[in-house]
Amino acid sequence: MGLELSIIMAYAFGLILLYIFGWILLIPLKWFVRLVFNSIVGGIMLFILNLIGGIWGIGLAINPLSAVVVGVLGIPGILLLFLFKYIL
């Protein structure tokens, strides 16, 4: 009553599929965590900009979309939001 080769191969194949499936799901999770972190940093940057810009009467709305734009693009994202608000 030993393990047959077909059973061992089935277990090995299942483990390989589980590893590949986990690896495929892990990559988008890393991107999502990175996007959330950058969005939080973007929201903080907008808050600081509104504190400093309040002296001169300029500021940008802090909402999830603007936080994502600033988080992903950085300083060009702030300039883009200013362009949309004051020029367009």
UniProtKB/TrEMBL annotation:
InterPro entries: BofA. Keywords: Membrane, Transmembrane, Transmembrane helix. The keyword GTP-binding does not apply. The chain crosses the membrane at residues 6-28, 35-59, 65-84. The keyword Transmembrane applies. This is SigmaK-factor processing regulatory BofA.
